[in-house]
Amino acid sequence: MANSIPADLDTLLQHTGIGEFDPVHGAAPVALPAMRTSTVRFQDLDALHRAQQAKAKGDRSVTYGRVGMDTHAALEDVFCTLEGAERAFLASSGLAAITLAFFSMLNSQDHVLVADCSYGPVRYLDKVVLRRMGIEATYCRATPDALKAQLRPNTRVLYVESPGSLLFEMLDIPALAAFAQEHDLILAVDNTWGSGYIYRPLELGADISIVAGTKYVGGHSDLMLGAVMAKDPALIQRINDTHYAMGYSISADDAWLAIRGVRTLPIRMRQTARNALEICDFFNSRHEVVRIYHPALPADPGHAIWQRDCTGSNGMLAVELRLDDAAARRFVDALTLFGIGFSWGGFESLVQLVDHGALQVHGYWTPSDNAIVRLHIGLESTRDLIADLSQALERAAARA
């Protein structure tokens, strides 16, 4: 697998965002406190002027509480460390971060190419907001040939998610980066699956990386958070201006929770990845299973790309079951250790029965009447999870 993540990333995550030593007493808190403020005071007008000048240049400079103080800056450093970025901008959710990226990159009358496997709410953002602003989007498979056929003179951005939402289709980011560069496009990647720890799109050629910190970064299902990361100074300036103009902000408490959560990111992600592979082995033994979608599996079509570009996996997988809708609903409802919910990346296992209507827009999916169930495998004992899945499959096979 790729060696792009430095060997000491686990150590860096433990030492990013800790308290500074007091210059008088020489003591420092291990955990930086949640620094809440709305108003920022300046020693004199010259200090205020310097801060305003730095802000105008795109530097991180605090002039008002909305930008955040030390806690926010520490979390931005965490995202830069994870993603290999020069700057990170915080948002109130993953979708808010996606919106920030779109608004930073696009103008009225521009056109954006979107991978058809991208997070579903992107289509809602397009339908409700982007079209009203005169921005057009086209959805297609994220391969250079398919994308080239959809190019327009006003295409400015290529937006993808890898692995794809719902079915975890691995995209060839280096090839897409070369395509974007050839056609003068900005390549933005939703990297929530990898969260910077097991996958680094910026190092593979992407211009912008977007992460829902709600998921693996927070890790405890108790906060909403998004972040946009970039390396290029011109892009950073555009995102900085848009971020400030739109009033994006997160609470100091959520920033603190995310810093706390990221300390255990390495062990949580490794354990959920091991657990997920055990669950895949279980599903491989079941006659009800048609296909498992999980790029870390050797049989997965995206496995070679995963091996090349990723340094690990996580707890996400989807499974196609020989069940009709009624039986699939019995299966999901019979589970006792899996919560029914849309999020993932926390400590707990979750299940979602995927609507076929949502799958129809994914060219990666082979249409059938079989049920598709998406699972997040958490930190519970796999022995207990397998027992729960077994009894639920037996319940699904029984007539109502």
Automatic annotation (TrEMBL):
The keyword Lyase applies. Signal peptide: none annotated. Belongs to the trans-sulfuration enzymes family. Keywords: Lyase, Pyridoxal phosphate. Pathway: Amino-acid biosynthesis; L-methionine biosynthesis via de novo pathway; L-homocysteine from L-cystathionine: step 1/1. InterPro entries: Cys/Met-Metab_PyrdxlP-dep_enz, Cys_b_lyase_bac, Cys_met_metab_PP, PyrdxlP-dep_Trfase, PyrdxlP-dep_Trfase_major, PyrdxlP-dep_Trfase_small. GO terms for molecular function: cysteine-S-conjugate beta-lyase activity; pyridoxal phosphate binding. It comes from the Bacteria. GO terms for biological process: L-cysteine catabolic process to pyruvate; transsulfuration. CDD domains: CGS_like. PANTHER family: CYSTATHIONINE BETA-LYASE-RELATED (PTHR43500:SF1). It catalyses: L,L-cystathionine + H2O = L-homocysteine + pyruvate + NH4(+); an S-substituted L-cysteine + H2O = a thiol + pyruvate + NH4(+). Its cofactor is pyridoxal 5'-phosphate. This is Cystathionine beta-lyase. Transmembrane segments: none annotated. The lineage of its organism: Bacteria, Pseudomonadati, Pseudomonadota, Betaproteobacteria, Burkholderiales. The modification N6-(pyridoxal phosphate)lysine is found at residue 215. PROSITE patterns: CYS_MET_METAB_PP (PS00868).
